[in-house]
Design brief:
The longest helix is centred in the C-terminal third of the chain and has 9 residues. The protein is elongated, with a radius of gyration of 18 Å. Helix content is 6%, strand content 55%. It has one domain. The model has no long low-confidence stretch (mean pLDDT 83). The protein is mainly β. The strands form three sheets. Strands 1, 2, 3, 4 and 5 form a five-stranded antiparallel beta sheet that branches. Strands 6, 7, 8, 9 and 10 form a five-stranded antiparallel beta sheet that branches. Strands 11-12 form a two-stranded antiparallel sheet. The protein has one helix and twelve strands; from the N terminus they run ββββββββββββα.
């Protein structure tokens, strides 16, 4: 993302599913070299660390879609609003939450959400939809098709 004449890269690092750290890097050139943010890691935990889509810039405000996996993978998407972003500070606040149960229309039956992207007037949400299939259950039980 380009902001205040710098390119910013956000990345989650983690070794297991219960703890991640959010690290930020910046450069004046998209090809680098990139420098580590003075506050790295700027956040840690299981919710709101991993990216869930591209940054959204609207009327000068920056929003960061993140994965909330606090109570299970794909529990919801948290949209964070970045308040301060510079070489030494990073502050963001919760702006809104998108849960699978809130989706309408053809999206009913989605039990988990993972990605939220916006381009012009198009919104794309990636979700998990489970469908009952007796054949799949049998294949899963025996481990092969017969």
């Amino acid at each position: 993302m380009k902001y205040n004449n710098k390119y910013w890269a956000f990345g989650a690092l983690g070794t297991h599913e219960t703890e991640y750290t959010l690290n930020i890097f910046y450069s004046e050139d998209i090809l680098g070299p990139y420098k580590a943010h003075a506050g790295n890691p700027v956040k840690s935990g299981i919710d709101g660390i991993r990216q869930a889509g591209n940054f959204i810039v609207e009327n000068g405000a920056i929003f960061r879609p993140t994965q909330n996996c606090k109570n299970g993978y794909g529990e919801s998407i948290m949209i964070k609003k970045i308040q301060i972003l510079n070489e030494s500070e990073f502050i963001e606040d919760d702006y809104m939450e998108i849960k699978a149960g809130q989706l309408r229309g053809n999206n009913q039956g989605i039990s988990r959400v993972h990605t939220f992207n916006v381009l012009n007037d198009v919104v794309v949400i990636d979700g998990l939809y489970k469908k009952f299939s007796p054949v799949r259950r049998v294949i899963g039980y025996f481990g092969k098709r017969f």
